[in-house]
Amino acid sequence: MASVQRQLVVYDFDWSMADQDTDRWVFEVNAPEIRRWIEDNEGKIQFTDMIAQALRDAHAHGVTREQLENALRTMPFHPAMVRAITNLEAAGKTTFFCLSNANSIYIDTILKEKNLLPMFTEIVTNPATWDPSGLLVLRRRVDPSGPQHQCTVGCSPNMCKGEELEAFYARHTPTYDRVVYVGDGSNDFCPALRLRSQDMLLCRTFGGLHKRIAREGGLKCEVIYWTGAWEVEEVFKTRLTS
């Protein structure tokens, strides 16, 4: 393709940028009985609402803000992913955007710990705030009492990642010469469908995304499969710096 002057890298967070799932990890560390409750009820309750309830239950059982923050800071996050982002940002011409179904507190805490937060132009996720008692109050990005998104691809009610990607484009004109999307989950399929022939999808080989690609197809972009963060670093170094 022609020389790339404006490049966007879009990251999912859990199991894509990070090497764990934030929503489950904090309970595995601090409240395994609540982690079991999540496992037993997944699919019965909207997931963001379920995690909000799990946070309330953990707070009621004495799990503190400090315990949650410590779990986040020690969650697996591969050094190669830190290098990949840091080195590509230093090379110039790349904008970084995080698009995740986790929440703002989880992501901000971890990115601050890894010195990556300033590199992200935007983080679009579910909003969360600490209340004075130390409870983490989590809400859906798309308020259930307001207008709902119009996704027909299968995104969760809390957010359509495809619509959020298009909205990001609208806020950051002109058009990017190349978009690179790093994801793993089935909810990354909707934004992947919106990528163009000059764009690139870095799809992790576990999670629901690769299964939907195999089953449904329909992508216009190049797809590169990866398992370890070192492979993302390799792609960034060899394919995205020119």
UniProtKB/TrEMBL annotation:
Enumerate the cofactors the protein uses.
Answer: Mg(2+)
Q: Which UniProt keywords apply?
A: Hydrolase, Magnesium, Metal-binding
User: PANTHER family of this UniProt entry?
Assistant: LP01149P, PHOSPHATASE, ORPHAN 1, 2
Q: Which domain of life is it from?
A: Eukaryota
Question: Would I find NAD among this entry's keywords?
Answer: no
Q: Does the keyword Coiled coil apply?
A: no
Positions bound to Mg(2+): D12, D14, D184
InterPro entries with a match to the protein in the record: HAD-like_sf, HAD_hydro_PyrdxlP_Pase-like, HAD_sf, Pase_PHOSPHO-typ
Annotated GO MF terms:
metal ion binding; phosphatase activity
Q: Which residues form a coiled coil?
A: none
Please give one Pfam family short name.
Put_Phosphatase
Indicate what this protein is called per its UniProt record. Answer: Phosphatase phospho-type
Organism source for this protein? Favolaschia claudopus
The positions flagged as active site in the entry are D12 (nucleophile), D14 (proton donor)
